[in-house]
Design goal:
The structure is a single chain. The protein has 498 residues and is of the alpha+beta class. The chain has 2 domains: 111 residues, Beta Polymerase, domain 2 (2-Layer Sandwich); 264 residues, Cytochrome-c3 Hydrogenase, chain B (Orthogonal Bundle), CATH 1.10.645. Helix content is 42%, strand content 17%. It is globular. The mean pLDDT is 95.
Length: 498
């Protein structure tokens, strides 16, 4: 058997993962992705063992609800053909492996740094000498934006090559937010510390990343979650989706100078995050989710309160969207702006909302469901045009859909149950979890050692895939359209940089 097929959140012995020679490893994984559009790489990384690197590749098959795992051991002195020359969706994974370990690829198109990790293999490569792509031309000019921005946002540098006002190329250089979180998962030993780390991977996706960590830990401990736990996490994920999508609709209206939409959508976000504070004491949901726990039970009083919030929110949200989509000046800024084609989205391995707006069916709630999503039978929202307008519509549709899910969930409030205690993680295990955060597919993987201790922890935020989608979307657009394109994706700097 060339690969091991597992379900989402299924722990397996590390020794059960097939180890291949690199030529077979290369052929297998590029072949799996090339054969079916329903397959894509959810994680591909390496970790050191003595003077060798163990590579692990995880290919999800969304049609079969399985993840295919394979491994390969290589030496640092090896010169390897790159997956990227076969399929472009592997390019960032291989750049990261090269940056971390100095592993050499003979034909990778451009081994640029990804994050400038503090423990990177070559410390002489730093942000100040980043190798930007350039064109020697008298007609073209470059425009640099950031890393310090006029708005109160995270740092990143955007380098545009323009012909007049038209963008020909955008290169996005990140790495300013690198905090070494993956290494901290190995250093911290208390479960409370690890949960707090997960909450701080990306500040706007607290529920998504903490749910992923909780599922990883429970998987390693072979812990069966109760309906009460699954209920709380599903409700929290959908509330986070509503809050962020609504806030982003406000920001998109701000970018096109539509003040009414900016004000109303901004106001509507507030009661959603305020409800989270009523539930768990924090508007961003910090402290809510922990492995094997329901720290703040969802009471009948909270059911009544959430119904009040949704009954007040929904009509105003629908009316504001009606006004927005009737406004010619708004449509002229949204329609056919920032297009990412189906072919490009598939090629770069786009996930989540960015993929769905281009016609790619990728949604973990449907393809690899967890918690109570199997009961909800999630219908994937898909658009075809891949433009800002499609991304605005997806946000609107997903908010409406999430409201429906919440009403269905709280109509059947599970009874409080006595929770069993977590055991210690199993020895020499591998496990992987997939969660559909509001931005898209979150993937965490973990490996334990002979005492059940974490010896490797890997995090992938959907932004890791989708920053390139933003760069492609602005080509042949006016440079003045960049802010609305950027906000239509709303990608995470911290989630990318880790």
């Amino acid at each position: 058997m060339q690969f091991l097929s597992i379900k989402n959140n299924q722990p397996v012995p590390v020794s059960s993962i097939p180890e291949l020679k690199y030529p077979e490893f290369f052929t297998l994984n590029t072949g799996l992705v090339a054969e079916k559009p329903e397959r894509h790489c959810v994680s591909y990384y390496g970790y050191p063992v003595q003077d060798q690197i163990i590579l692990i590749c995880c290919i999800a098959d969304d049609s079969e609800q399985m993840i295919h795992i394979s491994s390969c051991t290589v030496k640092l002195s090896d010169q390897l053909p790159s997956f990227t020359t076969k399929l472009f969706c592997f390019e960032k994974f291989e750049r990261e492996i090269h940056e971390n370990f100095g592993l050499k690829y003979t034909d990778h198109p451009w081994l640029k740094p990804v994050r400038y990790a503090f423990d990177r293999f070559d410390s002489t490569r730093n942000i100040s000498n980043y190798p930007f792509y350039s064109i020697d031309s008298e007609e073209l000019h470059e425009v640099g934006v950031g890393p310090i921005h006029a708005g109160v946002i995270e740092p990143g540098h955007f380098r545009f090559i323009c012909n007049g006002e038209q963008i020909l190329h955008l290169e996005i250089q990140l790495g300013y937010q690198h905090r070494g979180i993956e290494k901290l998962f190995l250093k911290k030993k208390e479960l409370s510390q690890l949960s707090t780390l997960a909450e701080n991977i990306a500040g706007d996706t607290v529920v998504g990343h903490t749910t992923a960590f909780a599922q990883i830990w429970e998987s390693l401990c072979r812990y069966e979650t109760s309906r009460e736990i699954d209920f709380s996490r599903t409700v929290a994920l959908e509330l986070e989706r509503i809050a962020i999508h609504t806030g982003d609709l406000s920001a998109l209206c701000t970018d096109i100078a539509y003040q009414l939409g900016s004000s109303v959508f901004g106001r509507l976000r507030t009661p959603i995050v305020n409800f989270m504070q009523e539930w768990c004491g924090n508007r961003l949901s910090k402290g809510l989710i922990r492995p094997g726990q329901v720290r703040f039970p969802f009471t009948p009083a909270l059911v009544d309160r959430l119904n009040q919030v949704l009954n007040s929110f929904e009509p105003d949200f629908l009316e504001m969207n009606k006004q927005l989509f009737m406004l010619p000046s708004a449509l002229s800024r949204f329609e056919r702006t920032g297009v990412v084609s189906f072919e490009d989205a598939l090629s770069i391995g786009a996930v989540g909302m960015a993929a769905r707006t281009s016609g790619v069916h990728r949604d973990i709630r449907s393809s690899h469901p967890h918690s109570l999503y199997p009961e909800l039978r999630h219908a994937v929202n898909v658009k075809r045009h891949g433009d800002v307008y499609s991304r605005v519509q997806i946000r609107k549709n997903e908010v409406i859909q999430s409201i429906g899910y919440l009403r269905k969930l709280i109509a059947d409030l599970p009874e409080a149950s006595e929770l069993s205690e977590l055991s210690v993680p199993g020895e020499n295990l591998f496990t992987l979890t997939l969660v559909e955060g509001w931005r898209g597919e979150i993937c965490h993987t973990a490996i334990t050692g002979p005492k059940g201790e974490l010896i490797h922890y890997k995090i992938k935020d959907p932004s890791f895939h989708n920053w390139l989608a933003l760069a492609l979307s602005v080509r042949n657009n006016e440079i003045s359209d960049f802010p609305v394109c950027n906000k239509s994706f709303n990608l995470s700097y911290a989630g990318h940089d880790l």
